[in-house]
Amino acid sequence: MGEVPERIPPTYIAVLVPVAAAINVVGGYIVNVLHLPVFLDMIGTCVTCWVLGPWWGVLTGVITNLAIALLVNPVYLPFAACNAIGALVWGYGAKIGLTKDFPRLLLLGIISAFVITSMAVPIYVFVFGGATGHFADIMTAVYLQMGAQLWVAVFSSNILSSLADKILSVFLAVLIVEALPPALRYRVEITKQPPLRVVMYAIIGIVIGVALAAGFVILTAK
Amino acid sequence: MSARATLYTPGDSILHRLNPLTKVVLLVELLIVVFPLMNPFILFALAGVAVILAVLAGVFKEFLKGMMILVPAAFAMAFFQTFWPAIPPPHRPIMKIGPLTAYHEGLYYGLVFAGRILAMGAFALLMVQVTHPVDLFVSLLKIKIPYIVGFMTLVTLQLVPILMKEATTIIQAQQSRGMKARGLTALIPSMIPLFASSMERVQQLAMSLEARAFGSSGKKTSLREVRMRALDYAVIALSVILTVASIAYFNEHNWFNYLRTYTFPVELAAVLIGTVTVGFVGMAAYFLVRMTG
C-alpha cells in the first residue's frame, strides 16, 4: 500500500452501496434466467465490504434484504442476518490479508460459506420448518431418510449450494473491484482474477467432497 | 420478477390510506400473535383473512403472484415434518408410502409450519402492497432512522428495474452472438457487461449527487407528506387492545395446541399426505429438470 490514505468521498459511498445492493438483487435474477443452482445475491456485499469496509458491507446486505422484502416477499427479511455476517467475514478477512492470493481467497470463500450457513440454518429450521423452497430441499430429504436430525440435514444440504455460491461470489467480486476506479480500491490488496476454469474445478471438487463427507458422517453416526 | 419497481400496488382503500407506521405496528402485533399459535386450522384461516383483505383492497392479482413464491417452501415444510417429525417421540404412524412412514404428529406439525409461513407471508405481503415505499421511509425518518439508510434503500429500489432490464438486454445480445443462455459458462459473459455498466453508473450518480449538494447539512424535505391522523391513533389503540386480549385468550387455551392428541380422519390424512407428497416431488422434479437442462 504505502500511499497516503485519503477519504473516499461520501457521495461515492452513498452511490456505491445502492449499486452494490442492486447488483445483489439482479445477480439473483440472472442465475434464475440461466437456471443455475446458486444464489449469487451477495456479490455486491462482497465488493463494498472490501472497498469501503466491513460495516458498509453489513449496510449493503441489510439494504439488499430490505429491497427483496419490498420486491418479492417480506418473509425473507430475516436473511438480512446472513448477508450481514457474510460482510463481516469477508471485510475482516480482507483486513487480515485473506484476499492476497488465490489459495487464501479460496479459503475465505469456504470459511464464509460455513459461517453464513450456520446463520441461515436456525432461520430455516425455526421459521421455515427446515424448508428453503429451493433445490437444497432435495438433498435435505435424502439426508433425512439416511437418518439425520432435521438441523443436521438442513445444514448438510445448504452448505453444498452455499460453498459453490460463496466461492463464486468472491471471485466475481474480484472482477468488479478490478473494474473500479483506482481511487476507490487502493486500500485493499486483492489478487488478480485467476482463470475461471480453475475456480470451477475447485468448486466442483469441494462440493462433491463435502457432500460425501456429510453422507459418511450421518451414516456412521446413526 | 417483473420490471415493476416494487410490490406497491396503487389504490384508494382504507389500508392504502393508513399511515405506514400504523401498518408496521399492526404487522408486528400480528406476528407476535401468529408465531406461538400451534393450530393449523386457525393459521390457514388467518391466511384466508389476508386473502379477503387483499381482495377488498383491490390488490388480489399481484398478491397471488407474491404468495406463489412461498408455495414450494410450504410444500417442502409439510413434507419433511410429515415423514421425519422434528419433535421428540412418541410418533403415531398413519400410513406407509414405499420406504417412508407418515405420522399424525408430523402431519400436524408440518401443517402448523406451512400455515404459519403462509399467514405471516400473506399479511407482510399485503402490508408492502398497500404502502408506497417513499411514504414508508419518510415516516421511518420521523422516528429517527438515519437519512442515509432510507436514501440508499430508495436508490436501490429505483436501480433494480433498470439493472434487470439491462441484464435482459445483455443476455439477449450474447445469445444473438451464439451464447447458450444457461449453465455456468453463460455466467461470465452475462455478468461482466453488467458490472462494467454499473461501475460507470456509480461515477455518474456520484457526480450528479455532488452537483446537487448531497452532503449539505440543511434540513431535507420530501415530495410526499405523511402524517398520523385520528384514524391511525384509533386503529393502533384498538389493535393493541385486541392483541393483548387474543394473547390472553390463546394462552388460556394453550395456543390451541392439539399436536399430541389430534388424530386425522383417514380420508383427510390421505388427501393431505397425497397433496404434500405430490407437491414436493413435483417441485424436486422441476428443479432437477431445470438444473440438468
Secondary structure layout:
The complex is a heterodimer of chains A (222) and B (293).
Chain A: H1 10-33, H2 43-51, H3 54-71, H4 80-95, H5 102-128, H6 136-145, H7 150-179, H8 182-185, H9 196-221
Helix pairs in contact in A: 1-2, 1-3, 2-3, 2-4, 2-7, 3-4, 4-5, 5-7, 6-7, 7-9
Chain B: H1 14-17, H2 20-34, H3 40-56, H4 60-68, H5 71-83, E1 93-97, E2 100-103, H6 104-129, H7 133-142, H8 147-176, H9 187-211, H10 230-252, H11 266-292
Antiparallel strand pairs in B: 1-2
Write structural notes for this entry.
- The complex is a heterodimer of chains A (222) and B (293).
- With 222 residues, chain A is mainly α.
- Chain A has one domain: Arp2/3 complex 21 kDa subunit ARPC3 (Orthogonal Bundle), CATH 1.10.1760.
- Chain A is built from 9 helices and no strands.
- In chain A, helix 4 (80-95) runs antiparallel to helix 5 (102-128) and helix 5 packs across helix 7 (150-179).
- Chain B has 293 residues and is mostly helical.
- Chain B has 2 domains: 14-136 and 229-292, no CATH class; 146-211, no CATH class.
- Helix content of chain B is 68%, strand content 3%.
- A two-stranded antiparallel ribbon of chain B has the order 1-2.
- In chain B, a hairpin with a 2-residue loop joins strand 1 (93-97) and strand 2 (100-103).
- The radius of gyration of chain B is 24 Å and the shape is flat.
- The relative contact order of chain B is 0.16.
- At the A-B interface, helix 1, helix 3, helix 5, helix 6 and helix 7 of A face helix 5, helix 6, helix 8, helix 9 and helix 11 of B.
